[in-house]
Write a structure and sequence with these properties.
By secondary structure, the chain is α+β, with helices and mostly antiparallel strands. Helix content is 19%, strand content 34%. A hairpin with a 4-residue loop joins strand 6 and strand 7.
Length: 510
């Protein structure tokens, strides 16, 4: 090849490379634009069809991602009118719902000053994001709870009034609506099963009512339980992206601009530990929030536990898949279907149960009145049971107080206990029909110290054998071979509410 022909070839290749880069840039830019969508009969359909962000935008920094997503993120101002009850008006942050008041003192009134009004006005700030072109917005329930008025701001000077379409306190999610708007930019819902620990995540919201703010971090963990809502449905995403007061309800998005979570809570005792409701939970409740304004869930009436290695060994199981039934509440669908504590639920309908989350999510997704078939392992045998689900009730529980009595004990278990006398049952709200031994103390070095056993609990079974007193308890424990697991069935009573809770505790005999 001559020098001249080589030079022509080099120029042609360079021109072709430049042309390709221009085309790629046009495609990338188009991927960051919002396009209007036609009306859809389902909010899920609209959320599925929203424009996403080209993942290659992340390689150029986070600015392109923030620019594409931000138009669909809103600030929510809530206005509440309440009776003063001696309190002066002011602002109230929605995060007080989780972590209590921020200790703002009530200023005393000086003599001669006018009396405080009987009603005061308070304002709070939260966040949300649009999921449909006609103005449906997702936020947290605690942002809008009790609000008299809602105002939505897209980042400019104008605010739009909004109304509540539906709320679900159990998951702390809410759906609100602004009227008269069309072709609004909105976000796409992502897939939780594609979220991995270590993935980048961006949080956008209105922290401290400063206005739209972007923070970036990674997914630190998934499946967190905090005990701030109904623990049956808690499955929080943890992130180190900064979440502050006012971020509540804002989106957590992946590098494609898809929503993977809703910013919900922060930890006061640490830096960069924030939590969000996962998008999988949002997907489950959205249809009912949109059409009915509330969420109705199926209910079995059992307390269940995951099968770890110790439980697997204690029950002689070949696999850790399944959900262990710790307790069956009286008068519930599970009780009517003769489900028993100690049962291992392996399958519901055609869905295999690997963990308790599988069973909870499936049952909760069904309407009351739905029949489901459970496959159960009981005493080494597989049985099937049909259960008609009912409406899930609200629940609550408090722990009993211990009492000082003359105890007996098994040294290696580290327990002190006594017979269940009529007086003890009466003073601690324990039904007359209950049999077992009453726990007085548990030593710090006890192998049961991490099994949640407390003073005041009653052990009613040892390895499936009923216990009617200290003698039968000790005999059952003595009969267990060294190196084998002891499986205690424990009942906890609340004398104030007449409620009880049941669970298993495990220890290996030395």
């Amino acid at each position: 090849m001559t020098p001249m022909s080589y030079e022509k070839s080099r120029r042609f290749a360079s021109a072709l490379l430049v042309f390709g880069a221009v085309v790629f840039g046009m495609v990338l830019t188009a991927g960051l634009d919002w396009t209007p969508l036609a009306y859809s009969s389902s909010v899920i359909e609209q959320a599925e069809s929203a424009v996403t962000v080209d993942p290659s935008a992340a390689t150029q920094g986070f600015a392109n991602l923030a620019e594409a997503v931000s138009p669909a993120v809103v600030s929510i101002r809530t206005i509440t009118f309440e009776e003063s009850k001696g309190r002066q008006g002011g602002t109230q942050d929605p995060f007080e719902f989780f972590f209590g008041p921020r200790n703002r003192p009530n200023a005393p009134q000086a003599p001669g000053q006018p009396q405080a009004p009987e009603e005061f006005r308070s304002e709070a700030g939260g966040s949300g994001f649009v999921i449909s072109s006609d103005g449906l917005i997702v936020t947290n329930n605690h942002v809008v709870e009790g609000a008299s008025e809602l105002m939505v701001n897209f980042g400019g000077d104008r605010e739009y009034p909004a109304t509540v379409r539906g709320t679900d306190p159990d998951t702390d999610l809410a759906l609100i609506q602004i009227e008269g708007q069309v072709d609004l930019p909105h976000l796409k819902l992502g897939a939780m099963d594609k979220v991995r620990v270590g993935d980048w995540v961006m949080v956008i919201g209105n922290p401290l009512r400063l206005g739209r703010t972007v923070t970036v971090g990674v997914v630190s963990a998934t499946g967190r339980t905090l005990g701030i809502t109904d623990v049956s449905f808690e499955n929080f995403i943890q992130t180190d992206a900064a979440i502050n007061f006012g971020n509540s309800g804002g989106p957590m998005v992946n590098m494609r601009g898809e929503v993977i979570g809703i910013a919900t809570a922060v930890n006061w005792g640490a830096e960069n530990i924030g939590f969000g409701v996962p998008v999988s939970t949002l997907r489950q409740v959205l249809p009912q929030l949109e059409t009915e304004g509330r969420v109705s869930r199926g209910y079995l009436g059992v307390t269940i536990q995951n099968l770890d290695f110790r439980i697997q060994q204690a029950f002689g199981l070949e696999s850790s898949a399944g959900a262990l039934v710790q307790n069956v509440n009286a008068g519930t669908p599970a009780a009517d279907a003769d489900i028993e504590h100690g049962d291992i639920i392996l399958q519901v309908d055609d869905r295999k149960i690997e963990t308790t989350r599988d069973l909870i999510d499936y049952v909760a997704s069904k309407r009351p009145g739905t029949k489901v078939e459970l496959e159960i392992l009981r005493d080494g045998k597989t049985i099937h049971s049909m259960v008609t689900l009912r409406e899930r009730p609200s629940n609550g529980e408090a722990a009993p107080a211990p009492s000082v009595v003359e105890p007996a004990g098994v040294e290696w278990l580290g327990l002190k206990y006594q017979e269940l006398s009529p007086g003890l049952k009466s003073s601690h709200g324990i039904p007359d029909s209950t049999q077992g031994v009453w726990i007085q103390t548990i030593e710090p070095r006890s192998p049961l110290a991490e099994e949640q056993i407390r003073p005041g609990d009653v052990v009613t079974e040892v390895n499936g054998t009923p216990v009617d007193g200290a003698e039968s308890f000790e005999a059952a424990v003595d009969n267990i071979e060294s190196g084998s697991f002891v499986r205690l069935y424990v009942e906890r009573f609340d004398p104030r509410s007449s409620r009880s809770a049941q669970f298993f505790a495990f220890a290996r005999k030395p």
